[in-house]
C-alpha cells in the first residue's frame, strides 16, 4: 500500500469534513499520498481526475472495531478480502481485533498482520493487541512490547476482561503506554450463555436470553476502574439504554471514557431474530441476526441514536464479524455471533439520516474524526490529520452518493462473510469511490476516472 | 364403527386387507381447512384446523379400540423418528401411531450436535430425505431446530419437542383430553403451574388453549417464569408475533382458585443446582399441587401432567393418582392424536 506518487484530483464534489467544520463545494488535490490542497479551481497539471459533481466527498471512514480473522480463520476472511470489503464500504483505516488464532498477544503476530497488510491490504490496517495472554483473562499480555510493535489499543474482544482486578492492573499499566483498552462488556454470570437479548422475543422463541444488565454492570465497573486509575477505557459496541446513560453520566464527571456503537445496534432490534424478510410466514431463528451484544429493543435503539446525537457515544464502529456460510447454517444456539458489516455500514447508518433522526454531518463525524479521537490515532507517526481532509493529512477519501439506492446482495460482497440479516434490503446511500493513501482502492464502474 | 372396517385376520396377507380398507372411514377435511406441510407449533393453527385435529383424533380412537388396531392408510409411507433427546412416551407413541396406520417407521436416536462436528442437522435431514422419508418426526434440544430442518427437506416435519420452544403434539393431546371431559375450553380457566421458562409444553399450550378461547393463568416462582412473558411494551407493543396474553400469578392458591383445569409441569431437579429455586422442599411447600390446593379449584377440575411425573414434587401422590387426574388418559390419547396428525399431513402430501 505505497502512497500513489501520481497526482489525483477530485473535482466538484460537496466536501464534507465535519471534524474540521468544512462543508462546501470544491476540489481536492492529492499528491504523494497526502492531501495537497483543498479549494475550488485546482489546476489539473496532469493529475488523474475523479468527477465528484453531485456527490459528497469526505474523509475516508475509520473503523476502530473489526475482525479480519487472519491469522487462523482464513476460511472466514483474510486481510486481503476483509480490507477489500472495507474499501467497498468506504473505510480507509480499520483496526482489527486480536481474537485471531493465535491470538494477537505477541509482537510476532502483530508483525504478521502488518506484513500481510503491507503486501495485500486495500486499506490501512492497524492491529489491536490482547489485554491478556491468550485472551484467557488471567495474566497480562506483554502490553509494552505490543505497543512498541504498533498496536493502537488493547482488547480481549469476543470476551470481556471479566476479572475486575486484572482490568484494574491492565488500566494502570496502560498509563505508561498512553493506549486505551476497548472492553467487550458482558458480565459472564449474568449473560449465562444467553444467545439473544432477554425479553419477549426470547421468551416467545424459547431461547436463553442475556439481560441488558449483563452489559450495564460491566460498563459501570469499567467506568469505576477508569476513574480509579485515570486511564482511558473505551466501551465497545454499546447496545442498551442503561449503558448509554452510565456513559453520559461518567463523561459529565470528566471520566476518561469513550464509546462506540455499531450500525446494527442503531437500526435493528431483537425481532430480527424472529422474523426475516426472506421468511415472512414462519419463525426465522435467523442465525445471521445472532450477534454479541445481542440486538436489543426499539427503546435501546432509540437511546443509542440519542447517545450519538448528544455526544455520549464517540464513534460508529462496524464490529465487522465475518463467518463462513457453513458456520451459520446450524441450530441457533450453536451458531457463532457476528454480522458481516463493512459493506452495509454506511448505508445502514444513513437510514438514520434519511429517517430524520441524525444529521448527515453527525454520522460522518462519528465514522471519521470521532473514532480517530477516541483512539488518538492522529497522534501516531505519519497519521497526523487522519480522519480529516486537512492539507498534509493522509490522502484517505470516500466519495459517496447519499441518495443512490441499492439492494444488499451478500453473494456480491467482497467479504467472505455473507452473514447479514439485511439480505434483500434496499439501502439508500452508496459508496462511489474510496481513495486510500492516494490510490483508488475501490470504485463503482460508473465513476469516471480519467 | 362401520362394520366393513374389519381388521387383520389370521391367515390373510396385508394386500388383501388393504384393498378392503376404505380410507373413507376417516374424516375428510373441507377443502382449504388444512394447509400445513409441517407441524412446527400451534401458533399458525386456526380454530378450524384444531377442530379438525380433534375430530380426526376421535376417529383414530375408534380405530385403536378395535380388536386388531391396524389400517393401511399410510402403507408405503416412510416415517422417520429422529430424536436428539431421549424420550419414551413421545417416541413410542409416534412409532405406534405410524405402525397402526401401516407406515414403515424407522427410529433414529441421534446424539451429539453439529457443535461437536458430527454430521450437521441439515446433512442428516438431506440423508433421510434421500432414503425416502416422507414424514420426519423430530425432537431436538435446541429451540428452532425443526424450523431449520423444514427449510431443507421435501419431507413433512413434525416437531416432537424443540428445546424450550414448542411441543405441539403434546398441546394437542392435552386439548383433546380436556375437551373429551369438558366439551370445549372456551371461557374455561386453565392454570399452568411450574417451570414455565424451560417448558416447551407450556408454550405450545398457550397457543392451542388461547386459540380455542381458554382463559390462561400462568403460575410458578418468578425465577421459573420467562422474562418477557408479559409481552412487548412501548414501541414494540402490538407485534403480531408476540405470545398470547396470559395472566401471571406467583401465588399458587390464588392461581388455582376456580380453575377448570390444573396443568402441572415437570420440575427438572437440576433447576435447584442452577440456583433457580432454593430447594425441592421449598418448591413443594409453595407450588406442589396437593389435595388441599386442588379443593380451591372448581369441583371436578381436571388435573393434567405431560409426564414423566416427579411424584411428590410438582404434584402430590394422591392427586396424581386421584379421581380428578387424567394423566394416564393423556398418554393414551397421545397415540390417537399423533395418528391424526400423520394422517392429515399425508393427505396433504398426496
Please give a structural write-up.
The complex is a heterodimer of chains A (450) and B (350). With 450 residues, chain A is an alpha/beta fold. Chain A has a single domain (60-391, 402-424), classed as Metal-dependent hydrolases (TIM Barrel). Helix content of chain A is 28%, strand content 21%. In chain A, the strands form 4 sheets. In chain A, strands 1, 2, 3, 4, 5, 15, 16 and 17 form an 8-stranded mixed sheet that branches. Chain A has a 4-stranded parallel sheet with strand order 9-12-13-14. In chain A, a hairpin with a 2-residue loop joins β16 (426-436) and β17. In chain A, α8 (241-253) runs parallel beside α10. Chain B folds into 2 domains: 29-167 and 332-349, 3-Layer(aba) Sandwich (Rossmann fold); 169-230 and 242-326, Aspartate/ornithine carbamoyltransferase (Rossmann fold), CATH 3.40.50. Chain B is built from 12 helices and 9 strands. Chain B has a 5-stranded parallel sheet with strand order 7-6-5-8-9. Chain B has a 4-stranded parallel sheet with strand order 2-1-3-4. In chain B, α7 links the parallel β5 and β6 (215-219). In chain B, α2 packs across α12 (327-349) and α6 crosses α7 (200-211). Chain B is globular. Residues 1-6 and 8-24 of chain B have low confidence and may be disordered. Chains A and B meet through α6 and α10 of A and α5 of B.
**Which chain pair shows the most residues in contact?**
A-B, 34 and 40 residues
Low-pLDDT ranges of chain A:
none
Strand content of chain A: 15-25%
Return residue spans of chain B where pLDDT drops below 50 for at least 5 consecutive residues. Answer: 1-6, 8-24
Number of strands of chain B: 9
Q: Classify the helix fraction of chain B into a percent range.
A: 25-40%
Query: From the 3D coordinates, which CATH architecture of chain A would you assign?
Result: Alpha-Beta Barrel
Largest sheet of chain A: 8 strands, mixed
Principal-axes shape call of chain A: globular
What kind of oligomer do you see? heterodimer
CATH class of the largest domain in chain B: Alpha Beta
What is the CATH topology of chain A? TIM Barrel
Amino acid at each position: 500500500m505505497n502512497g500513489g506518487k501520481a497526482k489525483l484530483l477530485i473535482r466538484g464534489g460537496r466536501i464534507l469534513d465535519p471534524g474540521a467544520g468544512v462543508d462546501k463545494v470544491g476540489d481536492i488535490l492529492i499528491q504523494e499520498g497526502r492531501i495537497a490542497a483543498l479549494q475550488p479551481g485546482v489546476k489539473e497539471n496532469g493529475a488523474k481526475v475523479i468527477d465528484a459533481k453531485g456527490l459528497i466527498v469526505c474523509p475516508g471512514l475509520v473503523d476502530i472495531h473489526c475482525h479480519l480473522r487472519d491469522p487462523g480463520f482464513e476460511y472466514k476472511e483474510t486481510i486481503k478480502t476483509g480490507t477489500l470489503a472495507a474499501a467497498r464500504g468506504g473505510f480507509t483505516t480499520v483496526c482489527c481485533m486480536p481474537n485471531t488464532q493465535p491470538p494477537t498477544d505477541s509482537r510476532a503476530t502483530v508483525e504478521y498482520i502488518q506484513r500481510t497488510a503491507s503486501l495485500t491490504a486495500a486499506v490501512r490496517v492497524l492491529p489491536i493487541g490482547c489485554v491478556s495472554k491468550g485472551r484467557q483473562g488471567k495474566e497480562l499480555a506483554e502490553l509494552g512490547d505490543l505497543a512498541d510493535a504498533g498496536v493502537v489499543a488493547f482488547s480481549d474482544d469476543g470476551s470481556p476482561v471479566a476479572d475486575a482486578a486484572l482490568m484494574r492492573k491492565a488500566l494502570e499499566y496502560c498509563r505508561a503506554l498512553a493506549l486505551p483498552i476497548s472492553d467487550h462488556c458482558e458480565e459472564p454470570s449474568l449473560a449465562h450463555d444467553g444467545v439473544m437479548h432477554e425479553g419477549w422475543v426470547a421468551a416467545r422463541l424459547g431461547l436463553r436470553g442475556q439481560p441488558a444488565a449483563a452489559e450495564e454492570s460491566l460498563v459501570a465497573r469499567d467506568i469505576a476502574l477508569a476513574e480509579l486509575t485515570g486511564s482511558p477505557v473505551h466501551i465497545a459496541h454499546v447496545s442498551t439504554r442503561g449503558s448509554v446513560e452510565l456513559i453520559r453520566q461518567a463523561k459529565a464527571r470528566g471520566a476518561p471514557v469513550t464509546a462506540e456503537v455499531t450500525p446494527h445496534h442503531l437500526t435493528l432490534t431483537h425481532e430480527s431474530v424472529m422474523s426475516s424478510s426472506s421468511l415472512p410466514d414462519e419463525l426465522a431463528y435467523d442465525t445471521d441476526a445472532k450477534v454479541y451484544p445481542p440486538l436489543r429493543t426499539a427503546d435501546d435503539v432509540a437511546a443509542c441514536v440519542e447517545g450519538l446525537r448528544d455526544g455520549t457515544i464517540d464513534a460508529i464502529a462496524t464490529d465487522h464479524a465475518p463467518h463462513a456460510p457453513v458456520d451459520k447454517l446450524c441450530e441457533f444456539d450453536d451458531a457463532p455471533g457476528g454480522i458481516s458489516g463493512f459493506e452495509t455500514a454506511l448505508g445502514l447508518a444513513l437510514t438514520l439520516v434519511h429517517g430524520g433522526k441524525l444529521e448527515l454531518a453527525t454520522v460522518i463525524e462519528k465514522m471519521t474524526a470521532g473514532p480517530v479521537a477516541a483512539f488518538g490515532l492522529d497522534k501516531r507517526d505519519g497519521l497526523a490529520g487522519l480522519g480529516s481532509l486537512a492539507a498534509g493529512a493522509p490522502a484517505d477519501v470516500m466519495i459517496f452518493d447519499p441518495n443512490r439506492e441499492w439492494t444488499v446482495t451478500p453473494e456480491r460482497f467482497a467479504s467472505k462473510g455473507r452473514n447479514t440479516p439485511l439480505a434483500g434490503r434496499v439501502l439508500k446511500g452508496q459508496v462511489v469511490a474510496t481513495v486510500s493513501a492516494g490510490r483508488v482502492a475501490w470504485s463503482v464502474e460508473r465513476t469516471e476516472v480519467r | 364403527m362401520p362394520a366393513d372396517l374389519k381388521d387383520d385376520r389370521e391367515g390373510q396377507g396385508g394386500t388383501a386387507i388393504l384393498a378392503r380398507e376404505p380410507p373413507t372411514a376417516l374424516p375428510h377435511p373441507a377443502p382449504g381447512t388444512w394447509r400445513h406441510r409441517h407441524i412446527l407449533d400451534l401458533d399458525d393453527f386456526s380454530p378450524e384446523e384444531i377442530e379438525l385435529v380433534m375430530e380426526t383424533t376421535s376417529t383414530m380412537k375408534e380405530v385403536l379400540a378395535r380388536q386388531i388396531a391396524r389400517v393401511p392408510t399410510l402403507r408405503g409411507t416412510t416415517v422417520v423418528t429422529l430424536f436428539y433427546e431421549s424420550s419414551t412416551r413421545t417416541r413410542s407413541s409416534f412409532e405406534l401411531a405410524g405402525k397402526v396406520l401401516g407406515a414403515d417407521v424407522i427410529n433414529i436416536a441421534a446424539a451429539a450436535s453439529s457443535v461437536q462436528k458430527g454430521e450437521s442437522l441439515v446433512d442428516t435431514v438431506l440423508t433421510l430425505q434421500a432414503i425416502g422419508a416422507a414424514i420426519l418426526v423430530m425432537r431436538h434440544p435446541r429451540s428452532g431446530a425443526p424450523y431449520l430442518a423444514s427449510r431443507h427437506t421435501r419431507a413433512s416435519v413434525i416437531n416432537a419437542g424443540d428445546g424450550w420452544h414448542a411441543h405441539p403434539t403434546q398441546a394437542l393431546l392435552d386439548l383433546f383430553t380436556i375437551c373429551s371431559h369438558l366439551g370445549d375450553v372456551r371461557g374455561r380457566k386453565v392454570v399452568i403451574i411450574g417451570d414455565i421458562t424451560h417448558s416447551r409444553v407450556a408454550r405450545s399450550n398457550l397457543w392451542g388453549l388461547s386459540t380455542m378461547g381458554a382463559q390462561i393463568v400462568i403460575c410458578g416462582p418468578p425465577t421459573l417464569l420467562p422474562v418477557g412473558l408479559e409481552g412487548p411494551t412501548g414501541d414494540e407493543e402490538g407485534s403480531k408475533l408476540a405470545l398470547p396474553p396470559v395472566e401471571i400469578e406467583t401465588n399458587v392458591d390464588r392461581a388455582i382458585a376456580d380453575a377448570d383445569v390444573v396443568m402441572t409441569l415437570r420440575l427438572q431437579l437440576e433447576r435447584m443446582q442452577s440456583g433457580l429455586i432454593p430447594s425441592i422442599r421449598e418448591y413443594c411447600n409453595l407450588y406442589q399441587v396437593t389435595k388441599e390446593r386442588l379443593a380451591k379449584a372448581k369441583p371436578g377440575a381436571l388435573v393434567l401432567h405431560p409426564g414423566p411425573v416427579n411424584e411428590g414434587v410438582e404434584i402430590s401422590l394422591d392427586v396424581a393418582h386421584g379421581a380428578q387426574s387424567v394423566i394416564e388418559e393423556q398418554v393414551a390419547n397421545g397415540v390417537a392424536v399423533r395418528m391424526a396428525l400423520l394422517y392429515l399431513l399425508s393427505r396433504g402430501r398426496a
